Amino acid sequence: MKHIFALCLLSVSTVSFSADRSIFDLMYLPNAGTTYGQTDFNLIKGETKTPGNDSEETGYLFQQTLGHSVCDRFLLSAQLDWQNTKTDLDFGPNQKEKGLSDPSLDARYRVVDKALMVDILAGFTFSTGDRKIDGNEFDHIRGGHSLRAGAQVGQKEESFQWAASGIVNRNFKAKTKVTGGGSFEDDAYNSYGLGASVLKKLAEETYLLGQLAATFADDYDDNNNSKNPSSTTYDLTAGARQILSQDLMFQVALTYTQINQESGQIDSSSKWNLNAALRYQF
Fold this sequence. Notes:
Blueprint: H1 2-14, E1 35-49, E2 55-71, E3 74-89, E4 95-100, E5 104-113, E6 117-125, E7 131-134, E8 137-138, E9 146-156, E10 160-171, E11 174-178, E12 182-186, E13 189-203, E14 206-217, E15 220-221, E16 227-228, E17 231-245, E18 248-261, E19 268-281
Parallel strand pairs: 4-8, 7-11
Antiparallel strand pairs: 1-2, 1-19, 2-3, 3-4, 3-5, 5-6, 6-9, 7-8, 9-10, 10-13, 11-12, 13-14, 14-17, 15-16, 17-18, 18-19
């Protein structure tokens, strides 16, 4: 806490604010003392094609974020979500994934706030226990902690914003318990994310959103001598943000996801995600 207070004192004397803080910003960082929340609802529809047995995933996900600006440079937020999805297979029993996620804590610290803004990002996902598989039902946790760190840069003008980010994730060992079948443990592995976003003013209170992202995950083993292949995930998002008031914003967005695995077991895997979100601050 003393270190955070020192950083806040330093920001008062050294930072030169280049633009007003707005609830619709790509690099959202509200003024000191502001508390905010964001509630997301996502409809999910995906398809995976494998040699001899295709599958289709449908369902939904709720996500809740709460955050607070400790000072003009430093933002802390926490996140939790609930997922309920079903996977229908051409051959074999259907599978379900349902439940709460592990909670996450994230931090954003602005080191430069001039014409070019630069933020340092960090986060930690807390494991609440082992992942559980009961027959064809899966819970919605990973079974291990995750740590991430990265940076985001961007610019904001009256009618246009852009931002680009890079982040490294360290996924620690994760344990899964199978009802009636013992357990297994996945090795730790890394994943790396790159992203770019633009926000363009369409009307007085309406902005168009575009995003590109890529995530590269390393391969890893488990203690059953099974190897999980490396993968690359691409996300393309198009959407809109509507300013309802100074402290309230609504977003609707559609994301297409393509997953490529370094394995001959999956021909193709893709997903559509329709998002509706409400961001509010006070």
